[in-house]
Amino acid sequence: MSIKVRYFASLKELIGQAGDDCEFVSGMTVLDVWQALLPEKAMPTNVLAAINMEYVSLDSILKDEDELAFFPPVTGG
Fold first, then answer.
1. How far apart are CA 47 and CA 26, in angstroms?
2. 26, exposed or middle or buried, with CB in 10 Å at 0-12, 13-18, 19+?
3. SS3 sequence of 19-68
4. What mean pLDDT is predicted for residues 22-40?
5. Distance of CA 49 to the CA centre of its chain
6. What is d(CA 20, CA 18) in angstroms, rounded to the nearest whole number?
7. CA–CA separation, 53 and 20 (whole Å)
8. What is the pTM of this model?
9. CA-CA to 34 of 20 to 30 Å: which in 17, 59, 71, 75?
10. What is the Cα–Cα distance from 68 to 11, expressed in whole angstroms?
11. Measured CA angle at 69 (ends 28, 23), to 5 deg
């Protein structure tokens, strides 16, 4: 039982990898996953998260086999 985690753009560079796997724990939130995988790195301000390609809040609860993606803030121009 696990969650597939992906990091995009500058987060990928900050973390040093494009993705990871996190052991699923019932009731786990998006923020819990970040803290479990990256305990030494504070989450940057305004990070966006998506579960199965839908934007969610950091307190959203994951299900087994979800895909979680983290994105830096998006700017337009």
1. 23
2. exposed
3. EEEEECCCCCEHHHHHHHHCCCCCCCCCCEEEECCEEECCCCECCCCCEE
4. 96
5. 6
6. 7
7. 16
8. 0.92
9. 75
10. 14
11. 40
pLDDT above 70 (res 59): yes
Taking the C-alpha atoms of residue 41 and residue 38, their distance in angstroms, rounded to an integer, is 5
Q: Given pLDDT bands bounded at 50, 70 and 90, which one contains residue 74?
A: confident
Amino acid, res. 25: V
The tokens describing 52, both together, are: 């199965």
Read off the tokens for 69: 């993606």
Rounded Cα gap, residues 28 and 25, in angstroms: 6
DSSP 8: -
Residue ranges and CATH numbers for the domains of the chain are 2-71 (3.10.20.30)
- Identify the bridge partners of residue 23 per DSSP, sorted by sequence position: 2
Q: Which two tokens stand for residue 44?
A: 């940057």
